Amino acid sequence: MRASLRRLLVPIMVTGLLATAACGSDEQPGGNEKITLNVALFGDFGFKPLYEEYSKAHPNITIKERISDYAAHHQSLISHLATGSGAADIEAVEIGYLSSFTATPNRFHNLLDLGAGSLENQWLPWKWQQGLSTDKKTLIGLGTDVGGMAMCYRTDLFKAAGLPTARDEVSKLWPTWEEYVATGKKYKAAAPKSYFMEASGNMFRAMVEQAPTGVYDDADKLIVDSNESVKKAWDLTVDAIASDQSAKLAAWTPEWSAAFGKGTFATIVCPAWMTAYIETNAKDAAGKWDIAAVPGGAGSMGGSHLALPKQGKNAQAAYDLIKWLTAPEQQKKIFKATGNFPSTPSLYTDPDLTGFSKPFFNNAPLGKIFTASAQAVQPQHQGPKQGDVFNTIGAGLGRIEQGKQSADDAWKQVLSDVAKLG
Amino acid sequence: MRTWLYKADTQLSPYVYISPFFILFAVFGLFPLGYTAWVSLHDWSLLSDEHSFVGLGNYSELLADPYFWNALRNTLSILALSTIPQLILALILAHLVNRPLRAKTLWRLGMLLPNVTSVVAVVVIFSQLFGRDFGLINWLLESFGLGRIDWQAGVASSHVAIAAMITWRWTGYNALIFLAAMQAVPKELYESATLDGATAGQQLRKITIPSIRPTIIFVVIVSTIYGLQVFAEPQLFAGGGPNGIIGGPDRQFQTLTLYMYEHGFNRGFEFGYASATAWVMFGLIVLAAAVNYLITRRIRSSR
């Protein structure tokens, strides 16, 4: 009974909302219809306090959040899209998966039809572009955070190895990745028992993300075997492994999480979202971590969008919510609470953001560092199996780290494995 | 008319009574099995709406993939490393608690505890024990002057770690099944054996094992089927990153189910290919069960 009533009412509601949206009014239309919006995320996006704020202003909206881990979230999203039911009204999509959806956008509401077109200038141009379908006619997601990169380092380990500890001096150690690896060699000579980086895969990925083209060309063709920047990044990473700089830790394992606090390694490539991870996993190490510039200038690693699967019935209400959640004011609050860096450039001149620092990181000016990094990002085209390609190359580096293969054999196997991904 | 109804009642009712099982089996067992076979004949990706028919293409590609054979080898190796010690330990445990003991129920319940613990909890704890830098086992090895082991990196070491988790979870459960069978063995046999001066070990070998042979074979079959499908242990052992999909950078502990997961839920969501893997696994399990069945028959006829 209720369901059929809702089926009748929703189109009326939607038309009403559309009409008011077209008038540019933020007034609540009717407001009697109770709507429950499900939000599915991977990890904590820091939305919880915002829901309360939103529900206060929109008493008819109830928001339910479900959180799972990165892989499980995207896998269940894809299954739900394929089977046509079970997806939440609002789904977070990380950049590693986004390109597989923009290739087949028909399973998502076109946000341009819901009124997103006028908001384009709110985001970094490349962040907006990432949410567009291949034919540029459909927008499937509004950007949340960007993974502007920096380099997090342990001041105590740097001091013990006789390296400078002040962040400006540390940044000067490695304008390029070659100098970063050279610094690593110096570090190993002075402190042979500890490691310079947590694993080599992150460094490789950062270098490739900084290049003008990565593992795909603009026509979604895999170019791992022909792109010079990829091979250059590989060779430099192999050099770092050969000089025993890597602690060979697999990301997202208990050993990896524990190592942040125990000081097993001295540096880690640090996209903005990583700062919260370090803070929660290394509570005892407050003041020992600091943040310097990333070698090679800038670059983005990670970052997400919010999308509305077509099976969701309350498209307009869901759109209004994601429009609000991704608006600059909200992104600023999220950054301060979680470290996820805003994708809206109007904030990059906001002193409230640029002046933001955290005691945990020796009062490093997170706002200033990540603003500089995000502004300098050269957008790079991401292909449909972006994440799988990096995992395949990462496994190759892992084989070298574990002493299973020579660098040449590992590269050959990477090329044949990547070709099979095709 | 009435006799016809009566006849129908007596002859059809039993089928109606047992039908719920078969209907449920058809819906949740047969249909998915058949549908999976149908999907396995297609180039079927979850990401696209087109599913083109490729015949046995997925199967020939699968059998030509060295990573499939690697996964099969790993699965069999973990199966042997977990099942054999598990059954021997279970037999000994069951034999011990089958003897007059104080607080019998406590011991028997205790044996079941590892099995009722969630597999995720077991693997998380064991992964920490087997940790490279901060693991308890490496700490012990080091304090005895032996070197640390990077458990996940090696083929043998990772298999041993995973087998330890499986053994921990299933030994007590199997011991209880053995125990149930042992209690059906006539007490007089043990009494006269004791009078004749047989030791506990001799009683186990000469009386218990021959008497519970059918149960042993049942347990072997069930453990084999479980062992061929082991998934959560290697997946969680590797942590949340890509190693949980391919079982380490060199695929050193990728099992068959992980291989299926790699293709079905990653890299393009190739459900057709994953379904073909599922069917090949099904065939392997039927084969293993058939071999076990033949052995059972031989034992029966030799008696």
TrEMBL record, chain B:
<dbReference type="GO" id="GO:0005886">
    <property type="term" value="C:plasma membrane"/>
</dbReference>
<feature type="transmembrane region" description="Helical">
    <location>
        <begin position="109"/>
        <end position="131"/>
    </location>
</feature>
<dbReference type="GO" id="GO:0055085">
    <property type="term" value="P:transmembrane transport"/>
</dbReference>
<keyword id="KW-0812">Transmembrane</keyword>
<feature type="transmembrane region" description="Helical">
    <location>
        <begin position="12"/>
        <end position="38"/>
    </location>
</feature>
<dbReference type="Pfam" id="PF00528">
    <property type="entry name" value="BPD_transp_1"/>
</dbReference>
<feature type="domain" description="ABC transmembrane type-1">
    <location>
        <begin position="72"/>
        <end position="292"/>
    </location>
</feature>
<dbReference type="InterPro" id="IPR035906">
    <property type="entry name" value="MetI-like_sf"/>
</dbReference>
<keyword id="KW-0472">Membrane</keyword>
<dbReference type="InterPro" id="IPR051393">
    <property type="entry name" value="ABC_transporter_permease"/>
</dbReference>
<feature type="transmembrane region" description="Helical">
    <location>
        <begin position="151"/>
        <end position="170"/>
    </location>
</feature>
<feature type="transmembrane region" description="Helical">
    <location>
        <begin position="271"/>
        <end position="295"/>
    </location>
</feature>
<feature type="transmembrane region" description="Helical">
    <location>
        <begin position="215"/>
        <end position="232"/>
    </location>
</feature>
<feature type="transmembrane region" description="Helical">
    <location>
        <begin position="76"/>
        <end position="97"/>
    </location>
</feature>
<keyword id="KW-1133">Transmembrane helix</keyword>
<dbReference type="InterPro" id="IPR000515">
    <property type="entry name" value="MetI-like"/>
</dbReference>
<protein>
    <submittedName>
        <fullName>Sugar ABC transporter permease</fullName>
    </submittedName>
</protein>
<comment type="similarity">
    <text>Belongs to the binding-protein-dependent transport system permease family.</text>
</comment>
<keyword id="KW-1003">Cell membrane</keyword>
<keyword id="KW-0813">Transport</keyword>
